[in-house]
Amino acid sequence: MSDQKDASVAAIIAAKRAEIAAKLARFQQPNGQPSSPGTATPATVHRPPTTPARTTTYQEPVNKYKAPARSSNVTPLPLPPSARPGAQATGGGLNLLEMQRMIAEAKERLATGTPTLHRATATGFRAPESGATKAAPQIALDESGNIDLKAMLDKGIIPKRETAISKVSQRQAPAKKEAKALKIEPHAVEDFKDTTKNPYFDPSLNAKAAPSMRRSRPLKFVQPGKYIQQANQERAKAQLEKLKQITAESVKKAGMETEMDISDKAIKKDPPPAVEWWDAPLLPNKTYSQLDDAPVNPDNLSSLVTLYVHHPIPIRPPSEQNGPPVLRSLMLTKKERKKLRRQRRQEAQKEKQDKIRLGLLPPDPPKVKISNLMRVLGDEAIQDPTKIEAKVRKEMEMRQKKHEMANEQRKLTPEERRAKILNKLKENQKISNEVAVFKINNCSHPKHRFKIETNAQQHQLSGMVIVNPRCSIVIVEGGPKGIKAYKKLMLRRIDWNDMPPPKHGSTEDSGMDLDMYRGNGQEENRCFLVWEGQVKNKAFRKFTWRTFASEKMARDELSKWHVEHYWDAAALANDEELAAKQHRLVNL
Predict the structure, then answer these.
(1) Counting Cβ atoms within 10 Å, is residue 120 exposed (0-12), middle (13-18) or buried (19+)?
(2) Structural contact between residues 469 and 505, judged by C-beta atoms closer than 8 angstroms
(3) What is the DSSP letter of 573?
(4) pLDDT tens track for 224-256
(5) Which of 242, 249, 246, 256 is nearest to 470 (CA)?
(6) Comparing C-alpha atoms, which of 493, 499, 456, 496 is closest to residue 474?
(7) Mind listing the pLDDT tens digit for each residue in 307-347?
(8) What pTM, to 2 d.p., does this model score?
(9) Residues 6+ apart with CB under 8 A from 170
(10) In 3-state terms, the chain is what percent helix, strand and coil (to 5)?
(11) Among the residues of 217-325, which ranges form H helices?
(12) Which residue in 292, 386, 523, 531 is a FRET match for 260, CA 20 to 30 A apart?
């Protein structure tokens, strides 16, 4: 049995060898024709002579789909050594060792990526072109070990089919820029979530997703006259700059140029001392220049540096300087005040009635009037009505006089009333020191001077009036209430263009020449508020009036009181600028 089995296996192997040899011979011949007599034919398969076995014949299957005719430039695949002409088959067919060697070489080429000598095409096997051979790319394999065609297509190992459309899109496609990945450092995230380092981070708020689409904005049409208004503003601004330039040039020609800062920084302050008081004991020459040249003796520091701590002088806050705040009574409406008065009078009347019942007070006489005459007196009024009527009318007059006398007694005298008003103004001045600076074209008229001086005295204001041919300024200092009333006087109540001729005497009695300051009569006389604010201390003790012929004299007079910056602010500001800022300054 074993001999028969070996014989059948050998026969099958021999048949397979013959089949492979026939295929190789067919590939070698062009157009798949059988080999010519001059070519080598596969070796004949011999049966083993040892044991008689059943012969197995193999018939090659007919190929219905023949390959198309190969072109002339296709090189035939070289045959293995066993199938080449002149090669002898060993063991009656293709040498098994040669086939194993060829398979091993093919596997090695696939593993190392070495290209084969012949490349298969749609029309046959094409020989490689002459020249240096390029190393074949690595074959991509998937997880299961099979060839991954998609990966090879993506890497470019398998060439893509080029079409006209793909070439056009490839030509039009812009070059892609390499996007740099945003690198977020871990310590930056920690600092962002740390509330001590990031005061804008609120951990209680959760981030919400951004809306998927941006809301469409409605159409906004340009309002008529918008660009016309902008153009007018630009023209006005250009005109204002031109006026400033013209004014500066005229000032330069007149030799009265004053290039000074008129802001809050220009307020005069005390210069710093040459040596601070805490450094004076440590400096032998009382100067900082010789500090390095004259070293300090450590023995002298024992008396200067002690264990005591120097505490600064405590300064009371502004809210506590004037004592506790005054508690004002609740403001009631007229109806509520009447109700409280009625309740208070009812309680007083009830208390009086209780005392009369207890005998502590005598009963009041009947309050007889013409309207209740018959009801109160009765028969007595009938006996002598004329006498009773005269008596009732006299009592009515007595009650009216008594009421009026009580009211007069409660009234304040004129002296007490003035003292009350002055006390209120003085208490109001303790709140803050307000300052207001006014600029007037001409305030030399006696009528205007009387109103300016009288109202300043009545409101307990201090300051100074400077009269100059160029302009006049009025500086007033006082409490908020007095400054508010004085602003109404200067900006609303006084008609500055009303300058009638004096009725009594001449202008020489008043010490001023009206013709000098009246001008040609065409310029409008106006008053502007230049500046208003608060100061720490008052500069003037009383309200005075000064007249100067030059600007330098006026400025020197104000420099004595350290308020020359008021004159600079009023002189450098023109009427157009002040008129534009009046609404903002007055409503502060």
Answers:
(1) exposed
(2) no
(3) S
(4) 889 999 999 999 999 988 988 888 787 777 655
(5) 256
(6) 456
(7) 788 888 888 776 666 666 677 788 999 999 999 999 999 99
(8) 0.41
(9) none
(10) 45, 5, 50
(11) 226-254
(12) 523
Residues with Cβ within 8 Å of 556's Cβ and at least 6 positions away in sequence, in order, are 564
Are 337 and 345 within 8 A, CB to CB? Answer: no
What residue ranges of the chain are covered by domains with CATH 3.30.70.100? 431-586
Gyration radius of the chain's alpha carbons: 61
From CA 159, how far away is CA 148, in angstroms rounded?
14
Closest CA to 495 of 440, 576, 570: 440
What is the distance between the alpha carbons of residues 412 and 409, in angstroms, rounded to a whole number? 8
DSSP 166-191: HHHHHHHSPPPPPPPPPP--HHHHHH
533 secondary structure, DSSP code: E
Fold held by 431-586: Alpha-Beta Plaits (3.30.70)
CB atoms near residue 51 (< 10 Å): 11
- Cα torsion for 443, 448, 452, 454, to the nearest 10°? 150
CA nearest to 530, candidates 260, 262, 244: 262
Continuous H helices in 29-142:
96-112
Spatial separation of the C-alpha atoms in residues 407 and 26, rounded to whole Å: 148
Give the C-alpha distances (Å, rounded to integers) separating 467 from 68, 554, 559.
Answer: 122, 8, 16
Provide the 10 A C-beta neighbour count for residue 71: 10
What residue ranges of the chain have pLDDT lower than 70? 1-5, 28-95, 113-140, 145, 160-189, 206-212, 254-268, 292-298, 300, 302-303, 318-325, 504-522, 587-588
Identify which of 75, 73, 54, 59 has the alpha carbon closest to the alpha carbon of residue 7: 54
Closest by alpha carbon to 532, among 441, 427, 428, 438? Answer: 438
What's the one-letter identity of residue 559?
A: S
Strand order from edge to edge, sheet including 472-478: 527-535, 433-440, 472-478, 462-467, 543-547
Cβ count within 10 A of residue 482:
22
Inter-residue contact 80 to 94 (CB < 8 Å): yes
Structure tokens at 96: 């098994």
Q: How many CB atoms within 10 Å of residue 403?
A: 10
Token pair of 74, please? 């296709």
By three-state DSSP, how is residue 344 classified? helix
CA 168 to each of CA 21, 323, 339, 394: distance values in angstroms, whole numbers, following the listed order: 49, 91, 97, 126
Contact 263, 573 (CB under 8 A): no
Please answer whether residues 101 and 117 qualify as being in contact, where contact means their C-beta atoms are separated by less than 8 angstroms.
no
| Long-range Cβ contacts of 75-78 (<8 Å, 24+ apart) | 75/118, 75/125, 75/126, 75/127, 76/27, 76/28, 76/29, 76/30, 76/125, 77/27, 77/28, 77/118, 77/125
Is there a contact between 113 and 135 (Cβ–Cβ < 8 Å)? yes
| Tokens at 220, concatenated | 């906004």
